[in-house]
Amino acid sequence: xxxxxxxxxxxxxxxxxxxxxxxxxxxxxxxxxxxxxxxxxxxxxxxxxxxxxxxxxxxxxxxxxxxxxxxxxxxxxxxxxxxxxxxxxxxxxxxxxxxxxxxxxxxxxxxxxxxxx
Length: 117
Description:
Blueprint: H1 2-37, H2 46-60, H3 65-81, E1 86-91, E2 98-103, H4 104-115
Helix pairs in contact: 2-3, 3-4
């Protein structure tokens, strides 16, 4: 009877430890995902920088009305996806590397500029 009771206690402890480990892993996964999409403070997340770069490339290559509309759609989509954006990123490499901020006011100014074309 004592052996059976000890076995139940060991199994209970083991299950509890496994549940804690799973919860910790899930929390780490959530924190990593948050860093990828971070945009309201600190460094911009990888996903944010990728979306920003895509938008900038499209908006630099405007030769027709269709290109302007594509740029405008990208800016609107970016602004909707990252409301209140205010984070910093880096561009360039080596000696040309510089830090810059991506802010909601800059995105809105870009949208206004594109809409006035």
